[in-house]
Amino acid sequence: MRGTHFFKHLSCISSWRISPQPGRLIHGIFPSPLSQRRPSSLFRTFSTSSSSPPTHSWTSPYFSVRISCPKDKADVLAEALLCFGASSSSMDEQGSDEGNDKICIDSIFYDRQDVDVCISHAADSIGLKELPSYEVRMGEQYDWIKNTQESFCPVEVTKGLWIVPEWGNPPDAHATNIILNPGYAFGTGEHPTTTLCLLLLHGLIKGGELFLDYGTGSGILAIAALKFGAALAVGTDVDPQAITAATHNAALNDISPNKIHLTLVPPDGRTHEVVAEQSSNGMGVKTDSESFDIVIANILLNPLLDLADEIVSYAKPGAVVAISGIISEQVPYVMERYSPLLESISVTEIDDWACVSGRKRRHLTIS
Fold first, then answer.
1. Which of 237, 242, 255, 356 has a CA positioned 20 to 30 A from the CA of residue 299?
2. For helices 112-125 and 74-83, angle between their N-to-C axes, nearest 10 degrees
3. Tens of pLDDT, residues 216-270
4. Alpha-carbon distance 116 to 3, whole Å?
């Protein structure tokens, strides 16, 4: 089965609610301390040797859940499942009949008790009147990883730019090849939002830029920025497994540690101190506001809305800020939220997914 893989990783935020409409994602059931973060305390450096939540063994059992849902709700339900506790979601597009208005979503969970609650909240959040039917089976982690590897083939993003799995061979040895093992993290290069962000970066970077990847996942955007010529990339995430995956991927691409800083953002509301500062060509970790030439946040709709001021605060005046991880019909909400912060806003789309980008307004004051 070849599916469209989603490995999103940022928690839901509570304060933005969107009126129920067909195919529109709504959060707002669970509050999150992420909304209490202040720009001055975003980063703390993460080390795989530091104390962190335990990760799942490659051979630990997991629960595979197959959900049948209306086709017109599939994208937003897959995203909502991730927001409410699923570790991954993939849609079986090939297994869907043209005359059938249903499609199957396959999700992975590590706790059986999470399944019923997650599906109930996810369905409610997108306005489904009835709980979708689903079946649960237990499997071994190895099976899922193997299936993911089999479905992840080299992807040509644009001429001369390839995303290549760690276990594969680059189709073009002379191209810019980003070697990737996503592990548990979002970002294989197949998803339209990742493609949109890569194309934007490819056109923006001229050499020497400082780049912030807000919600780094597999690290694909930070790694790409450096391969395009950026001087420094900082990637943040709330998930330790994402930081681990991104660190591994940086090493696969021979990225020097002084070029990339991958930082864990604690999911609680406490002050986030830098616990192990590294050097970056003598510059140190860039944690101040207005530090970056390019900022991209490819996460989920509600965090994008709730954290707009924070995301934009890290961009220099006139710097490019790009917002993605949204479906096309969510663009008006993003435009309304970011228009006071950005100018010269443009929208690019692939397969009903969108990326909104603009330049930070000069003389903008963010409290």
1. 255
2. 130
3. 989 999 999 999 999 999 999 888 888 998 999 999 999 999 999 999 986 632 2
4. 23
